[in-house]
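Below is a filled-in request sheet from our internal design queue. Each sheet records the structural input a requester submitted and the sequence that came back. We keep these sheets so that new team members can see what a complete request looks like end to end.

REQUESTER: design group, bay 2
PRIORITY: normal
MODE: inverse folding
CHAIN LENGTH: 496
BACKBONE (tokenized):
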């Protein structure tokens, strides 16, 4: 006779689930409010979403380090806390932009904010576990919500973007599932710490590592799709172009942070075990991605597509740190994306300043370089701020991303990969061309006829968000060391 299994509430350690429960509860609350009272002003849902995210932020900060919960599938370590804080910070900067304009009708739907919170919850699940099944569940939860959010922009371009993202996202999910199946079939485990134990005990057995490396290759393809590594990047420019500017900026940051954490946990296991084949796969993908993305960014005619290829290049730049297997390298990933978050989201938000419903300067693109000609005369402050973001993305000191690039290159040199550091520095120099190209158009080109008719969005939420972004970008030198110390501590206590 089977004996009943007794599970105590204390053993579940549900506090490890508290951040996700907060955000999922907030999403359900929004849906319930909408059922009870229709046609409420969108500001109510924006305020409620921000409040939920703030509570979630506090719940994440209150977590104890290196704990497991809910049948040991939840993992709360320094990496999980850091990545969740970055996800929530980016989300809190994004949501207020819903108040900036009535032209984006998707913000008038309560379902938009509920889906957004469900998406955040999915991302949090991905980074707060080392269980392959729960990572997959979080990935699909976040992805399905994100596909819908893109489609809700309700333009021909957004419909195409959502379908393309859905199709390639489904392919990425398939590769992830096959990779997880290969790892499980070889080791009999889905928790990465158990996989590591089996790997360490049997790695010298003939033929044992072959299916494991095959699983890693499948996983790397899935990660490549989500992080936009070349040649798995084909969806990125079109999806960014079809999405609203703020959503494109958000997509360039948060999904990449989450998949970088998954890559740290999964691929870092192989690198730590000394599987050089996986290390070199990461390095080759990183070099190809940052180089080809820079070349493609140079020939773009649209600023949003240029920023899309720019984010691909930055993903390749950061990906190189995964192959180094040092605390400094892993810390550099969080420092880089923590600074990149403000700069890139600010740059995409600035595209909103001169947004027009009609493609006025190009038959296809809404943000061609020609539209920014003489912006210094139309909006001097806007041109200066956009110039600061471009200089930061270039890596010009003292702006924020200079410190991120410097720290990654320093970690690469310290790990003994001087040649890789040189490649990364050369790619940063190449990227300077297309960033400075926009500055030339804004400051040195004469204004286009009719440029005075551009709609300039100076609503308060946009001004506040962009102001925060430019403040962090320009003043980072004053807080970079304390931030780096905190990140290094959190990564080191996680065992990286």
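RETURNED SEQUENCE:
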């Amino acid at each position: 006779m089977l004996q009943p299994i007794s599970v105590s509430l204390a053993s579940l350690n549900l506090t490890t689930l508290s951040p996700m429960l907060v955000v999922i509860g907030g999403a359900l609350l929004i849906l319930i409010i909408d059922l009870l009272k229709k046609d409420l002003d969108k500001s109510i849902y924006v305020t409620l979403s921000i409040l939920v995210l703030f509570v979630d932020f506090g719940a994440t900060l209150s977590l104890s380090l290196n704990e497991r919960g809910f049948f040991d599938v939840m993992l709360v370590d320094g990496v999980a806390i850091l990545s969740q804080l970055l996800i929530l910070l980016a989300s809190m900067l994004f949501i207020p932009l819903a108040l900036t304009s009535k032209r984006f009708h998707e913000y008038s739907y309560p379902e938009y904010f509920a889906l957004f919170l469900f998406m955040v919850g999915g991302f949090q699940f991905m980074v707060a576990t080392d269980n392959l099944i729960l990572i997959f569940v979080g990935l699909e939860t976040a992805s399905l919500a994100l596909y819908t959010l893109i489609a809700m922009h309700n333009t021909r371009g957004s419909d195409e973007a959502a379908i393309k993202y859905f199709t390639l996202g489904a392919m990425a999910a398939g590769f992830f599932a096959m990779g997880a199946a290969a790892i499980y079939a070889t080791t009999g485990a889905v928790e990465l710490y158990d996989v590591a134990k089996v790997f360490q005990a049997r790695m010298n057995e003939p033929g044992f590592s072959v299916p494991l490396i095959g699983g890693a290759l499948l996983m790397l393809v899935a990660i490549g799709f989500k992080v936009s590594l070349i040649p798995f990047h084909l969806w990125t420019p079109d999806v960014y172009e079809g999405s609203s500017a703020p959503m494109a900026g958000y997509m360039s940051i948060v999904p990449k942070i989450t998949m970088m954490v998954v890559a740290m946990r999964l691929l870092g296991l192989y690198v730590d075990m000394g599987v050089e084949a996986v290390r070199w796969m990461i390095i080759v993908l990183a070099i190809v991605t940052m180089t080809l993305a820079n070349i493609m960014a140079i020939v773009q005619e649209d600023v949003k597509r240029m920023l899309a290829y720019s984010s691909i290049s930055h993903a390749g730049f950061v990906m190189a740190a995964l192959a180094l297997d040092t605390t400094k390298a892993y810390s550099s990933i969080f420092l880089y994306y923590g600074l990149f978050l403000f700069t890139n989201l600010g740059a995409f938000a600035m595209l909103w300043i001169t947004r027009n419903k009609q493609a006025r300067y190009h038959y296809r693109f809404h943000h061609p370089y020609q539209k920014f000609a003489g912006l210094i005369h139309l909006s001097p402050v806007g041109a200066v701020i956009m110039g600061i973001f471009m200089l930061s993305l270039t890596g010009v000191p003292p702006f924020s991303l200079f410190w991120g690039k410097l720290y990654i290159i320093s970690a690469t040199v310290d790990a003994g990969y001087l040649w890789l550091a040189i490649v990364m520095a050369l790619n940063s120099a190449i990227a300077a061309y297309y960033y400075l190209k926009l500055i030339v158009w804004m400051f040195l080109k004469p204004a286009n006829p009719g440029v005075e008719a551009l709609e300039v969005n100076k609503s308060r939420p946009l001004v506040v968000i962009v102001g925060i972004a430019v403040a962090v970008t320009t003043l980072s030198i004053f807080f970079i060391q304390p931030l780096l110390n905190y990140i290094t501590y959190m990564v080191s206590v996680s065992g990286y």
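SHEET NOTES:
- The chain has a mean pLDDT of 83.
- The CA atoms of residues 150 and 162 lie 6 Å apart.
FILED BY: M.R.
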